[in-house]
Amino acid sequence: MQLGRVTGTVVATMKADGLDGVRFLIVQPLDKALTPSGAPIVAADAVSMAGRGELVYYVAAREAAEAMDPAFVPVDHAIVGIVDQVAVEEGG
Amino acid sequence: MKLGKVVGTVVSTINHPFYDARRLLVCDLVTLEGTPDGYIIAVDTVDAGVGETVLILDEGNSSRQIFDIPTGPIRSTIVGIVDEVTINE
């Protein structure tokens, strides 16, 4: 899993079967110091509660499809948790 | 599997039910030369602590087998605390 910051939302009317009702958010991947790292991704929101500006962690690939309810819908990244706190040791 | 060093913790209350009461640790991945190679957040199963070198399973099906939950949205799991690594040059 990786850390990310929700920076926006995506709305799509025409979607593949199984994606109705799924929220899509733009997520900026972060390094462990919470600085942006790499290109933004679009992730499905498996906790249905993530909002703009929030710090989240997400999974990719089969695990992302597994996280959804119902499972195995066609997504490749899914937010599985909203972070309250990250504690990383000095210099770590 | 990968070698990593635990450098921190992640606390979360709103999460997928699979992650309820799971301990999440931030781990630096290290190469055999000891240089950092990114980080990963992994679920702890061995009571690892900050500063320890750990063995990280970074594959979904194996991780689901560890937790015995065939539908868990999990890929990275800490499965061992490393005592010693010996590399033959």
Q: Would you mind describing this structure in some detail?
A:
The complex is a heterodimer of chains A (92) and B (89). With 92 residues, chain A is mainly β. Chain A has one domain (2-82): EutN/Ccml (OB fold (Dihydrolipoamide Acetyltransferase, E2P), Beta Barrel). Chain A has one helix at residues 61-67, and strands at residues 2-10, 24-30, 41-45, 55-60, 77-88. In chain A, strands 1-2-3-5-4 form a 5-stranded mixed β-barrel. The model of chain A has no long low-confidence stretch (mean pLDDT 95). Chain B has 89 residues and is mostly beta strands. In chain B, β1 and β2 (24-30) form a beta hairpin. Helices cover 9% and strands 47% of the residues of chain B. The two termini of chain B are 21 Å apart. Chain B has 1 helix and 5 strands, in the order ββββαβ. The model of chain B has no long low-confidence stretch (mean pLDDT 95). Chain B has a single domain, classed as Beta Barrel (OB fold (Dihydrolipoamide Acetyltransferase, E2P)). Chain A binds chain B through residues 1-3, 31-32, 46-47, 49, 57, 59-64, 66-67, 71, 78, 80-89, 92, and chain B through 5, 7-16, 18-19, 24, 26, 28, 38-42, 50-51, 60, 71-76.
